[in-house]
Write a structure and sequence with these properties.
Keywords: DNA-binding, Homeobox, Nucleus. By secondary structure, the chain is mainly α. The protein has 8 helices and no strands. The chain binds a DNA duplex through helix 3, helix 4, helix 7 and helix 8.
Amino acid sequence: PFCKKRSRTLPSDLPLCLFPGGSHPKVGGDRRKRTVFTPAQIELLKKSFEENQYPGYQTREALARCIGIEEDRVHIWFQNRRARTPKRIRIGNHAAAPYRSYPKVGGDRRKRTVFTPVQIELLKKEFEENQYPGYETREALARCIGVEEDRVHVRIEMVGAPKTSLNRTYWNHLKRSE
DNA sequence: GGGTAATCTAATCAACG
DNA sequence: CGTTGATTAGATTACCC
């Protein structure tokens, strides 16, 4: 029982920005199956969270190995945890300057993935056909080009640009520099 | 240095118990 | 039906070529 058919095209009229969270009825593919953490895993995650609310990649990776789960699941868990932690208790964030402090706190980040032209080509082709590939699609695509699924996910998110045909990040970048 | 992956927040959807 | 994992938009920072 999951929700159906991804739309092949963007809904023409209504801007997607009106529907954060992918709430537009026509978008959103099959989701990754919800992860169920064991009490022991939760305990370790919470303990780790108390020590550092912004663990870097190495830390997340180690933690993930320790509790036998993927690094990206840990990453998501921390994001959700922070989002649901009252701001006054949140360490390493300042409401006024949302992004200013995170690099210091976060520390190391994952090594930048470099896609080959062939990989880009395939990603682009898939994206044209479906801008919101579900989990199964992403997984298959990832296997096909030989990278991890979450890298595909990030990549798709980056490129996804309802507003323009340009890369979303690039668009923001240009907007900032004038 | 420019282009873009990694990361963040915020809001929302939706599976599980 | 509340808790919480997953998805998305938008924004910022770091890094490879």
